[in-house]
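Side project, low priority. Logging it here so it doesn't get lost.
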Amino acid sequence: MKKFLSLLVVMFGLNLNSSAQSVIPNPDPNAPEIKFESEVIDYGTIEYDANGIREFKFTNVGKTPLTITSVTGECGCTATTIDGKPGWPQEPILPGKGGVIKVKYDTKREGRFEKNVTVTSNSKLSTAKVRIKGEIKAKPTTAEGN
């Protein structure tokens, strides 16, 4: 029983450690800072196999150019590469200027969804999380025997 409890405590501790965000603050007061128009995009209820691309609009509210180094989806159902190209700006975003980050959810998956997207940059906080959510209607059935 003691071994079981010890194992349980160790597993719980590992789980807490793995779920902690590794956000590295940038101590430079002039560092760029990413500010999203909205941190959540709600697809609402959409048709099966509908267009799954949405855009997160953002502004660099910092004092130096913002460089986005990567954007990653929580799982394979959320893509950040659209038509073979990164869905985020590849060039630095000047202070006061903005851009968009495109994400694509696989709308061939029926039911409710809620997924995080992680944006890594040279912003005051090295990572930012945005979220998509919604519901995909059931796949339409085809009429047979007509």
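Brief comment: The longest strand covers residues 111-121.
Revisit when time allows.
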